[in-house]
Amino acid sequence: MPQLVRCSGRWASRLKKSHPQIKNQLLSFSFTTATTSSTSKPDSQSSSDSGRPCSPPPIQVGFTESAGRGVFATRRIEAGELIHTAKPILSHPSLTSLKSVCYFCLGRLPEKIPSQTDDHVVFCSDECRKQSEGFREVEKKANWSTFFEHCHMHGLKYPLLVKRLACLVISGAASADSLDILQPATLSSQMIFLMEKEFILLRSSFQDADITDKQLAFLTKEWYTGALARIRINSFRVEFAGSSYQDLFSSAAALVDSEAAVGTALYMLPSFYNHDCDPNTHIIWIQNADTRIKALREIEAGEEMRICYIDASMDYEARQVLLFEGFGFKCNCLRCSSHD
Ligand SMILES: C[S@@+](CC[C@H](N)C(=O)[O-])C[C@H]1O[C@@H](n2cnc3c(N)ncnc32)[C@H](O)[C@@H]1O
Q1: What is the mean pLDDT of residues 29-53?
Q2: Mutational pocket test of ligand 1: of 327, 337, 338, 340, the residue with most ligand atoms within 8 Å of the beta carbon
Q3: Beta strand 59-63 with 3-4: parallel, antiparallel or unpaired?
Q4: How many beta carbons lie within 10 A of that of residue 91, not counting itself?
Q5: How much is the mean pLDDT over the chain?
């Protein structure tokens, strides 16, 4: 039986200083010790597929024997059960989706887009526009064309999330150490060297926009690489599960464009799920970056829940290469132990 840890205390106080999305995620972390007020709506809660919430979610973060922290079931979970939902703490559309999905929630745009006050990006609702006001005010002060062009030319998506985090920090909506709780990727000196350019572009875009040195004190190369190392290992490509012929058609078209993902998002609780090449759980997106974690089969109380980070249909060798190069680990799952 793994040693279970309560996600409160040090983690909670660090997260309390963070922006509202992170604060809401805190409810999902504190569920073992805290009761949420009737007016607060946890961002991560279990619910039936009818959408009826039945919190708290039956999960707990604990230590595994050989994969660091992981997520464990606190009771038996049925196959197909919706275990919990989660809202992103950071999200950003892919550069090719900037005008076709909501700049905040990555959701599809309604036929009639609400009146926009923002020329460069588009929101699916007034609510999303309002939620973006803090970071967008900072972002709008600067000219991002060189930074975007650099990311576009080199196929970079993680710097877009670092930029959004930096805007949140400058706006006062997030603290600079918001992501410290997450496991960082090990970056080679070559990777760190290549990040120099994007870091300089990010910092100089803020400086040119007259963001003061005091406001930018956190934005050091060390902070940048630390944030990027965490985003790299923990963020998800957001791809909608096709639910209609129209969706299937659009995703086929997106694949032809070699970009099926509408964007990238980072979550707090889902970041603690380890990988398995024969997972018992999966993560899905239906209409925006809010995600659902569902059981693929029956899960026993105390069992670790794992998702699959890659395409599980690949053969053993291909999976090892991808997991090692992309995530920096040698997979210890049962399927890999038998070289299947
Ligand atoms: C997204 S994090 C998962 C949570 C992480 N264990 C933690 O403590 O924060 C991914 C990291 O967990 C570890 N990990 C996940 N799945 C693993 C597996 N199947 N075998 C070995 N290590 C794994 C690796 O260190 C990997 O880089």
Answers
A1: 39
A2: 327
A3: antiparallel
A4: 28
A5: 83
- 303 close to 288: Cβ distance less than 8 angstroms: no
What's the token pair of residue 249? 């058609």
Tokens standing for residue 120:
């460069």
Task: Tell me the C-alpha distance between 269 and 127, whole Å.
Answer: 24
Q: Is 15 in the pocket of ligand 1 (CB under 6 A)?
A: no
What amino acid occupies position 155?
A: G
Query: Residue 3 above 50 pLDDT?
Result: no
Residue 177 burial (C-beta neighbours within 10 Å; 0-12, 13-18, 19+): middle
Nearest atom within ligand 1 for CA of residue 333: 19
Which ligand 1 atom minimizes the distance to the CA of 277?
19
List, for residues 153-190, the tens digit of each pLDDT value.
999 999 999 999 999 999 999 999 999 999 999 999 99
List pLDDT tens digits, range 43-64: 455 544 444 545 689 999 999 9
Q: How many Cβ atoms from other residues are within 10 Å of residue 199's Cβ?
A: 20
